[in-house]
Specification:
heterotrimer; A mainly alpha (about 190); B alpha+beta (about 375); C mainly alpha (about 425); A: about 190 residues; mainly alpha; about 70% helix; globular; disordered N terminus; C: about 425 residues; 15 helices
Amino acid sequence: MNSALSAGAPVATPFFFYMLSGLAVIGGILVITRRNAVHSALALIVTLLSVAGLYLMLYAPFVAGVQIIVYAGGIMVLFLFVIMLVNIERASKDRRFNRIWPIGLVAACTLMGLFVSAFVKGRALFPDRGMPLSEGSNTQEIAKALYGEVNRAGQYTFGQYTFAFEIASLLLLVAILGAVIMTKKKI
Amino acid sequence: MNDRLDPMSNLDLDAPDTYLDSNELIINMGPQHPATHGVLRVILKLDGEKVLGTECVIGYLHRGVEKIAENRTYTMFNPYVDRMDYVAAVSNGLGYCEAVEKLLNVEAPARAKYIRVILTELNRIASHQLWLGTHALDIGAMTPLFYTFRDREEILKIFEKYCGARLTTHAFRIGGCQYETYAGFEKDVKNFLTFVAPKIDEYETLLTTNRIWLERTKNVGVISAADAIALGVTGPVLRASGVKWDLRKAQPYAAYADFDFEIPIGENGDTYDRYLVRMAEMRQSLRIIEQAVNGIPEGPIMGKVPKVIKPPVGEIYHSIEAPKGELGYFIVSDGSTQPYRIRVRPPSFVNLQALDIMVRGLLVADVIAVIGTLDIVLGEVDR
Amino acid sequence: MPNFIMSYLGSTLTPGQAGNQFWALIYVLIIFAGVSVAVIAMNWIERKALAHFQIRLGPMRVGPHGLLQPFADALKLMLKEDIIPSEADQFVFWVAPLIGLLAAFTVYTVIPFGPSQAVSDMNIGILFMLGVSSLGVLGIVVAGWASNSHYPLIGALRSSAQMVSYEVAMGLAVVSAIVMTSLNSTGTGTLSMIGIVQAQQQQGVWFIFKFFPLGFIAFGIFAIAMVAETNRAPFDMAEAESELTAGYHTEYSGLRWSLFMLAEYAAMIAVSSIAVTLWLGGWMRPFPNLLHAPAWDFIFSLFPGLTFGALAAIALLGTVRMPSHSFFKIQRVGLAVFAGLLGLIALLLLVIAVAGRSADSGLAARFNDGIGYVYWFVLKVSVFMYLFIWYRATWPRYRFDQLMKIGWKVMLPISLGVLVVTAIVGVIF
């Protein structure tokens, strides 16, 4: 019998990982190199969807779902609205690489250094490093126990991290009010 | 006309066509458009989505009817009149024939007057039914159109049996009617009355209390009574603004003085009131037809009219209450067989001028509803 | 091989859960074919039903009673010249209908036609559905922009603004249905679609009737929002012909336009399936608990066969009433063949129903169960499809600002209120 028929085992993980991350990186590169703003937005959508796929591979289905709904389906629509309503032809004729590019290079190198150090230090940075998360074993059970299942996500959000949740929603409310006040001619 | 009512005062056609710096935009609803009821061109000046003013460009259907009249005898001109308001052709013919009869100082016999009233009221119902179907279609309800056209068929069948034509009937002659009513005319008309009364209720169930219809038509295209009178608007548009003025009661012509009917009026002068007024008018027309068909007097159908119609020198203005408003004929005779000048006062032409003041402040989607509610026919706007 | 098939048919897991890629692929193909057939049938039904509402007949010439009209339309659209505006962005113009189509069809991976008849029962099923249908908005926005013309752009932005607004109310109505799934003995709800239907089964009530009228109001909000979501009447201002803005698919011709139409109908069927799953008990037959005797099971299992039998009878009636002029000979024969086909299917279903009555777990019984599930699900979805057409025939359309006002000022507060009250009532009882 095909081993893929056994429940819960991950299937072809390296293939999907490299495909999704490759897509995400290519999408990112296209975002910053395309001249046409709508093309950049579409490439960003590809990146966001690949990241959602990566979340799925990390057994965080709720985050993946919310990523698609909020980011790809909501925020990108907003991006596209703004791009289409505002005349950005003028901006696309400007030079794309402006004069302060050394600062950008420094910032990018710093960020990369952060990532490299995280990778090198590895699992030592995370508290649950003792768990053997090897392929082929029932990793789904482990992930469920740790973070993944939607129940647990809900319990954490409204239990341990309620305050952070409320502060975040307050922040969003302030942003919305600010946008309304700035753009409406009369209330 | 004071500046507020002047449609050209609000429209600056030389303004630069920018739409990012300011929010103003000039949009053209071209002569070819599914919703302008004929070849009407409307230039809208918009502020974002709101309408600041409009200008109607007409003349796409101008056929020179009034000029043609100067080269035709009075009898020859009779068929031309139907082609102006082609939806309510019988009313056009009635107005013209009565105007010439007044000029000749001839009166149609009583039987002819009753037949004229019956056919004119049938035509009023047909015109209102067409209006209802197309107006509802503009607002998005696609079904009442088919219902009203199906019921309108019965009226057109009666016309066809009477004079051979459905639309441009040429039903009347100067001095009376040419054709005697066919055998079974009264029966057909009475059958029609019982047939159509529940159908009008059917149209009402679809629209009158429908909340989408209410939201689309209430407080849309309001015109106050004072503005309506100042602009010369007549017909259901005037009556929906609260002015109880109907030429059939105010200056009775044909046999209308013999009948008992009411003049429905509205309160607010918005699109919904115009809808209600026209629905009520259909019912009142049914009342008139019933009284008329039950009492058609016997007698001749043609008055004492000379073979060659040569009215004495003079002029006359005679107007009737067409389905769309006051339809007037101003005829100047110089004593010959051909009129010196015929000037038609079409109700749609004058009502259309109220469009500008009715759509100020509305959204673009409402402009179409307001054009529909004015019930204009370009044939008589342009002549 | 038969063992393989039997082992699958007896499985209680969906192919996705079981990791069975072969069957998952088969399911995907069946769903793809089924949805395409459903869209074609829906096209015919819409034209005929709309016509009958308007006291006319609709297509009658292309095939008997217009049955071949959708195929003729599809053929015509495929053969039309493919016009691309010269100033339009070629790549984006090409990709826009695909985005909408992908979004509309991907929703079907989570829709359950039975307790194990779904492509994959994700444990975030509803979340997946909401997310993917919000991707459909992108297709519309991009289509309007790619046409490089002022009116389609405005129409596309309006369509997408409308869809985004009603997604909020839709999501909240969905959440109140999810809250109801947690009102079972263990106190844990589920986001998986099959889990939702099983929760209705366990609690013995369709969620539309639960805590009456709360479930009903939530269902009503979803039913209205899904009409707005798919840009159908009375919320179709953005694509109406008599308005100035001509709609996002103006510049598309031929096959590309038909992709938009396909995406629209597929989205309609998808959201109706969601409504059926969440509130109307999914694949369950009516009164599973009240009338649970085997006799009632048998009677209800006869319904699929009887339905096809009724359809065959209607087709036969049409054949008999067709004029006997030689012009109609081909149509008569065609309709008779169609009636015969329907009758054969009816016979087959009745045989399976009868055979599956006696045996408890034989092949016939399992087929019987499966057919029953799919039949009740499709029946409920068909009711919604008919409602879509009925709305279009009857009502005028809302003005765009009125539409947005309803979405934000009426639907959102009501759905929030229903959610809160449902949660409170659920805790108390």
